Structure formats: C-alpha cells, structure tokens
Amino acid sequence: MDPEEPSSPVEDEESEDEESSEDDDQSPKKRSRHTITGRGVTMAMLMSDDIMEAGEGLLSIAYLGKKFLADLLPNGTIYWPEQKMQFNSPSAWAIYCKKLVNPSKKSGCGWASVKYKGKKLDSYKSTWFRKHRPVHSTTSSTTTKTTSVADQEEEENELASARKGSEGETQAHRNESFQSLSSSFSRKTDGKRISVKHISLGKRNLSHNQNTLVECTTFAAQGRIQPFTISMTTNCLLLMDFHSHLTTSEVVGYLGGRWDPLTQHMTVQQAFPCKCRLSDKEMAGKIEDEIRLNMDRRALTLVGWYHSHPTYQADPSLRDIDSQMDYQLQLKGAGNAYNPCLGVIVAPYDLHHSRKDSTMLAFWVAPPPESKPCDYGMPMSMSYTISQDTFITQDVLTEMKWLTDFYSEEPDLINFKDQWHQSTSFMDKLKGSLAKKFPKDQTDGRFLEYIHNLLIH
C-alpha cells in the first residue's frame, strides 16, 4: 500500500530468489499494489480454477544444496511426508525447511521458493491474475463487492457465523428462512468454545483443528516489552464495530494508518471494510486496487487487517495465527526497514456474554524460537491508546451507508428490531457498543438517530 514500501527479500538455491516475472522491473507503486492483491491468492483458489491439482510429490524446495518434496492436498494445504507435518501456506513450509538448513534464516517468500511440477508458484499465480484481472477502471463504485485478506481463511465462514467443530459451537446456515441471529441462535450455558493456552499446542501436526482458539499472551507475562506502540482513532474503531454488527457471518477489512520508524509508533487511522463474501473472488484485483488508491489519496499506508468472530470470543484461531504471521512477513520490509502489521479481531455477539459493547482484540504474532521452527507462533495481545476524533468524517458516514446497502438483501443481515438479551434489542446493543467510540461532537443524539434510520425502516 505504501508507495515507498520495498518488496521483501527472498532466497532460493544458494542465492537470493528472483522475483516472479509478474513483478520484474515494477515501480514501487506497482510492487506495493501486490502487497495486497498477491496476499489474497491461495493455492486452494488456483486449484478451484483448475490451474493446479492435488497430488503426491508435486511441490519442491531447493535451498543451499538441499531438496525437499511435499504433497499438495485437495484443500490447498501442504503435507510434508518426511516429518508428517501439514502447512497452511507455501511461506510456512518454505521458512520451516530453510531454517533446518540455515537456522539464521528469518523470512522468505514461499511463492518464489516453492515449485509446483518444477515451476515456481509465482508463475501459476501470474496465470491466475491474468485470468481474473482484466484491464479495468480504478474508479470507485458504490456497488462494488470487494475481496479481502481473509480469502486465506478458505471461505469456511461464508455460510455461518460460528463454525461447527470439536468445540461444539452452534452454526447458522444461510437460507431463505433465515431472519436474524435471535431466531437462529440460542444463548447457551454449554457448548462454549474453549481457548487453549499456546504452551499446550506443541509441534504442528495433522490432528490440530485449525479452528482451535488460542489465548493471547501479554508481553509483561513474557518479561518483554511490546515492540511498538499503537494508537487507534475512534472513527476507525467505530467503523470496524459497525461492520461486525451487521451480519451473522464473518466480516473482514483493512486498516490504514501511518508508521513512524523513529518513534516505533503505529497510528491506525481508518478502517477500509471489504464489502464481500469470503468466497467472492471475481472482483479481487479491482477492489483491492481501489482500496489501495483510497489509502493513497488519504496519504495512508496499509498497517493491518481486521475480521470478526460473530458469536464467540475474540481469541485468534490457529488459522488466524498463521495468516497473521504470513502478513507480518510480507509487510515487514527489506533490509533494515521494518513495517509492522497489526491484526484486530472484533467479537460483537458472543453468545455467552450479555454486555452491549463488543470485545476488540489487537494482536501480533511472535515467531517461534529458532530451536523450535515447527511450533506455532505465539499470539500476543497488543495494548493501544484510543485517540478520540473531533468529528465523524464523511468517509465513515459513506462507508456505513454502503455497508448497509450491501447487506440489506442478504439473508444473514441482523434484524435490529429483534431482542438480543432479555429486554435489550439488537439496535440497543449496537448503539451501546458504538456510543463508546463516538467523536467529541456527537453529544446531542443526532448520530444515534442516523444509525437507527439506516438500519430500521
């Protein structure tokens, strides 16, 4: 997103990896565009478009004289039979293998290091881009449906706001009879999703459910200092919260802001919601370019992403942890440059709590120690200060209107007239949560009336 942002260094064989042909001789602005558009592409997406297919021994890495072979599974993940391990992304497998050979290896690009049938994955990604990204206008459109960084979550939440897994959580199906969360979910005292401690995970293995939630650790508990400070504006928090409240399905979006390398401070200034279903890939290139341009116009850079856990706690899943680690590696910068990436999880409708305000967790992932490269990264909760805006910006009002229009005909739209808990309606809950994020000039109730009129006709 940042025009000044360099691409990350990668290695292959016994020297630095060459960039894919798609990125050769690109301007900094072009490279920064692929910071977003490239991130949304997964091997599962390439397989669904018949660009790649599952099979044994199809994936390989050659690094410093060593060669590694792995299988491509039907769900787009990687199985390494040598150590009976499964990886969610090319980057995760590449880093693990390279660290075995070179323990000082810190990062790398899996798409440039891993080969499929002897050809770099980058070339297959380029084929996918050519297929899905025809020449297009970058003009903004209120009817555009966007893609998001959560494409890497393999679309598992498109039809439900809570996964049905080993934790026994409830699940709602998208169908014509679906009216609201209150008519499809019941508040329970059992079946609660349990968050496990990171220390209990151990090495990666196939028995791990990728939807398992993991408790975040504080830096203080680790005897460490948070690596950078963070401030978030109330307008940004308000828009993330509003977006997450609208539907029983998971939502996603980007975070725009500024990074000061001198003070090591991140300012998260504005949310950029993705008005899409997690499986909507057709408009991926166009919309992510549109978000990039909108950030550029506001002199903002990409500093993170957010997504919702509609009906359960705001602890990251194993999949969230791996995704966040991948994003951190891709945004970190080259050489001595460092550009952090922040993840935010919003939990608007935790079925086991009746409080009005949503839970919001800002998190970052500490990489595993070099002595244990196959462990999961450790999710760390990030403290931040809240900067109260003076007024609601037109950007926020416009996005709220667009989001309302986007979900207005969807079957998983919340019916805000229904009861959330006892005598509290969904509208009352929403207003109670958003009110804590209002700017300084909203003291007369006008904005609450605006929200009410948007959602209840």
Compose a concise summary of this entry:
This protein has helices at 28-37, 43-48, 90-101, 110-113, 121-132, 181-184, 234-245, 284-297, 318-331, 394-407, 426-435, 446-455; strands at 11-12, 15-16, 55-63, 66-72, 78-80, 85-87, 115-116, 119-120, 195-196, 213-214, 229-233, 252-260, 265-273, 301-308, 342-347, 359-366, 378-381, 385-387, 419-421, 424-425.
Question: How would you explain this protein's 3D organization?
Answer:
There is one protein chain. This protein is an alpha+beta fold and about 450 residues long. It has twelve helices and 20 strands. It has helices at about 30-35, 45-50, 90-100, 110-115, 120-130, 180-185, 235-245, 285-295, 320-330, 395-405, 425-435, 445-455, and strands at about 10, 15, 55-65, 65-70, 80, 85, 115, 120, 195, 215, 230-235, 250-260, 265-275, 300-310, 340-345, 360-365, 380, 385, 420, 425. An eight-stranded mixed beta sheet has the order 17-16-15-14-12-13-11-18. It has a six-stranded antiparallel beta sheet with strand order 6-5-4-3-7-8.
